[in-house]
Inverse folding.
C-alpha cells in the first residue's frame, strides 16, 4: 500500500506550523488553522492511498480549524471525512450541530458545509485517524448519511466497533496490505460505514442485498475471531448469536469458498501457528498454545496441524526459525 509520511521534526521551528498547515490543505481539505503552540509546533502524518480514497493518521499539538464558505467556493472535492479519535478530545460544529468527541469515538463531517473544529489533549499531542472518500461512492442515499454528520458515533459495539477496528488496523499496520488490497480495503470501509449509518438510523432496508451480506459476513467473522479460544464454539452457536439460521450462515461462508466449521478450524490453526514461533511465546508448551486457540485435545490439534501444514506443531516450531514451512494444499 502506497504510504507517504510527513513530520515537522526536520524543519526549523519557525517554519513548522506553516508547513503543517500546507500539508493539511494538500492531503485533506483547505481550512484555516490556528494553535497556541504555533511557535513550537510538533506534528506527524502518515497518508495511505486507497485509490478512490485515503486514510491519514495524524499526531499534533492542539489546534482549532475553520472551513469557511469562501474556502468551499474555492475548492470542494465533495468528500465525506470519517474521523476516529485515538487520543485527546475533539469538537465539531457543522450543520447546526455542536458535538464533543472523546477517544474511541467516530465522527463524520462534510467538505461541502462550513464547519468549526477543535482538538486538545492535556499534556500531550492529539492522535486521530481520518478516512476521506467521495460522497458518491458511499452505498447509501446522501440524505441518510447527512443525518449523522457532526454527531457522536460511539464505537463500542456493532458495526461502528468493526469500523473503528478497521481504521486502527489499516493505520497501524499498513505493511500488511499490498497494492492489490487497496480496492478491497476501501470497499470494506464503505460497507461498514453504510451499515453503521443504516443501523444507527434504523434504516437497514436502505442497504442493498450485497451490502447487507458483506456487512453480516464481517460481523460474523469478527465474532468468531473473538471466541476462537472457546472449544465449545460451533457454527450453530455462531448462527444463534446473530439471529440467523444455520443455513443462512452456511450461505455467507459459501460466498467465501468455505464452510463455517472449516473457517473456525482454519482461524484456530493460523492463530496457533503464529504463536508457536512468536518470540513472546517461545517457552509456552505446545498444548497450552493449542488450548488458547480452542483445541482441548492435544492429539486432535497435532493431527489437524499436520493435515494443514505437513508437519507436526513441534517440527514446525523447531524448523520455522531456519526456513519457511509451506501450507499443504489439498
Amino acid at each position: 500500500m502506497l504510504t507517504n509520511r510527513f513530520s515537522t521534526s526536520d524543519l526549523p521551528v519557525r517554519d513548522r506550523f506553516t508547513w503543517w498547515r500546507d500539508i493539511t490543505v494538500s492531503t485533506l481539505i483547505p481550512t484555516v488553522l490556528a494553535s497556541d503552540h504555533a511557535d513550537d509546533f510538533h506534528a506527524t502524518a502518515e497518508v495511505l492511498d486507497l485509490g478512490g480514497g485515503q486514510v491519514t493518521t495524524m499526531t499534533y499539538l492542539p489546534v482549532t480549524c475553520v472551513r469557511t464558505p469562501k474556502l468551499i467556493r474555492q475548492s470542494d472535492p465533495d468528500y465525506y471525512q470519517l474521523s476516529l479519535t485515538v487520543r485527546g478530545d475533539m469538537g465539531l460544529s457543522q450543520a447546526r450541530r455542536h458535538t464533543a468527541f472523546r477517544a474511541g469515538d467516530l465522527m463524520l463531517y462534510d467538505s461541502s458545509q462550513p464547519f468549526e473544529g477543535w482538538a486538545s489533549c492535556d499534556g500531550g499531542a492529539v492522535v486521530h485517524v481520518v478516512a476521506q472518500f467521495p460522497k458518491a461512492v458511499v452505498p447509501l442515499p446522501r440524505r441518510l448519511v447527512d443525518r449523522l454528520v457532526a454527531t457522536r458515533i460511539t464505537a463500542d459495539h456493532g458495526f461502528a466497533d468493526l469500523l473503528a477496528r478497521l481504521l486502527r488496523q489499516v493505520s497501524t499496520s499498513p505493511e500488511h496490505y499490498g497494492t492489490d488490497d487497496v480496492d478491497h480495503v476501501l470497499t470494506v470501509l464503505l460497507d461498514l460505514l453504510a451499515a453503521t449509518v443504516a443501523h444507527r438510523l434504523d434504516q437497514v432496508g436502505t442497504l442493498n442485498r450485497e451490502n447487507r451480506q458483506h456487512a453480516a459476513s464481517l460481523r460474523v467473522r469478527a465474532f468468531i475471531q473473538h471466541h476462537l479460544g472457546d472449544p465449545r464454539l460451533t457454527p450453530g452457536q455462531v448462527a444463534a448469536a446473530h439471529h440467523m439460521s444455520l443455513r443462512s450462515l452456511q450461505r455467507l461462508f459459501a460466498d467465501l469458498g468455505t464452510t463455517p466449521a472449516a473457517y473456525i478450524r482454519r482461524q484456530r490453526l493460523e492463530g496457533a501457528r503464529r504463536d508457536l514461533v512468536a518470540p513472546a511465546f517461545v517457552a509456552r508448551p505446545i498444548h497450552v498454545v493449542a488450548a488458547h486457540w480452542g483445541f482441548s485435545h492435544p492429539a486432535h490439534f497435532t493431527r489437524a496441524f499436520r493435515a494443514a501444514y505437513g508437519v507436526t506443531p513441534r517440527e514446525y516450531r523447531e524448523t520455522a526459525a531456519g526456513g519457511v514451512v509451506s501450507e499443504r494444499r489439498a
User: Anything to note?
Assistant: The chain has two domains: 3-226, 235-320. The longest strand covers residues 79-87. The chain is about 40% helix and 20% strand.
